[in-house]
C-alpha cells in the first residue's frame, strides 16, 4: 500500500512543484520545509511580499524564485485563475499552466497528481516513472509508443500506476533492476 501526501491548496502545491523541478527528492523536501517553517502558509500574498533574494535564501535558484514571484503576481492580479483549473480536463490544465513562466507539462502533471488528485496521470517526462517502467517490464528503453501502450493499460487509474512506478524506481522491490544500457565513461 502506498500513501501519498496531498496538498489541496493549488498555489502552495504549484510553488512546491516548481521547487522540486530537476532536484533530488531530499533537496526538494529540505527547501520546502525551510520555506514552510519560515513563512507558515504559502500564499500569493506571502510570496509576493518577498524579494527574489529572500526566496533564494530558502535554497531556490534565482530562476525558480522569479517563476514563483511571477505566478504569485498573476494570481494576485487575477490574470491567472487557479480555481478555474478544477473544472478543466487534464490536457487543458497542462496547456493553461504551461502558459506560466517556468511551468511545463511535468510540473502541471505533478500538480494534477499531488494536489488535484486527478486519477489518470502518468508522466512521460518523469525519469523515475520511466525507470520504474523499465524495471517492471524489463525494457532497456521506454519510448513514446511503449509508454502510450502502458498508459492505456492503466487508464483510467494511471495516477495509481505512477505511485507504484516511483516506488519501484526508488528500490521498493530489491530483486528488480534497471535494464537501461549503462552509459560509457
Short key terms for the protein model shown above:
185 residues, mainly alpha, Endonuclease III, domain 1, 2 domains, 0% strand
Written overview of the protein:
With 185 residues, this protein is an all-alpha fold. The chain folds into two domains: 10-114, Endonuclease III, domain 1; 119-185. The chain is 56% helix and 0% strand. The chain has ten helices and no strands. It has helices at 10-19, 25-39, 44-48, 52-56, 62-76, 90-98, 105-114, 127-137, 144-154, 158-169. The protein is globular, with a radius of gyration of 17 Å. 30% of the residues are buried. The mean pLDDT is 94.
Q: What's the short story on this structure?
A:
By secondary structure, this protein is mostly helical. It is 56% helix and 0% strand.
Amino acid at each position: 500500500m502506498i500513501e501519498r501526501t496531498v496538498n489541496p491548496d493549488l498555489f502552495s502545491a504549484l510553488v512546491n512543484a516548481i521547487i522540486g523541478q530537476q532536484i533530488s527528492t531530499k533537496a526538494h523536501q529540505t527547501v520546502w520545509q525551510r520555506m514552510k517553517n519560515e513563512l507558515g502558509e504559502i500564499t500569493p500574498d506571502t510570496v509576493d511580499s518577498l524579494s527574489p533574494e529572500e526566496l533564494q535564501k530558502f535554497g531556490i535558484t534565482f530562476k525558480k524564485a522569479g517563476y514563483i514571484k511571477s505566478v504569485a503576481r498573476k494570481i494576485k492580479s487575477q490574470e491567472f485563475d487557479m480555481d478555474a483549473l478544477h473544472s478543466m480536463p487534464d490536457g487543458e490544465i497542462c496547456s493553461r499552466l504551461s502558459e506560466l513562466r517556468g511551468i511545463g507539462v511535468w510540473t502541471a502533471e505533478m500538480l494534477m497528481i499531488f494536489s488535484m488528485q486527478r486519477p489518470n496521470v502518468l508522466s512521460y517526462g518523469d525519469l523515475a516513472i520511466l525507470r520504474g517502467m523499465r524495471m517492471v517490464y524489463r525494457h532497456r528503453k521506454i519510448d513514446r509508443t511503449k509508454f502510450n501502450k502502458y498508459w492505456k493499460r492503466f487508464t483510467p487509474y494511471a495516477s495509481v500506476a505512477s505511485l507504484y512506478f516511483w516506488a519501484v524506481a526508488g528500490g521498493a522491490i530489491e530483486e528488480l533492476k534497471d535494464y537501461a544500457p549503462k552509459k560509457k565513461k
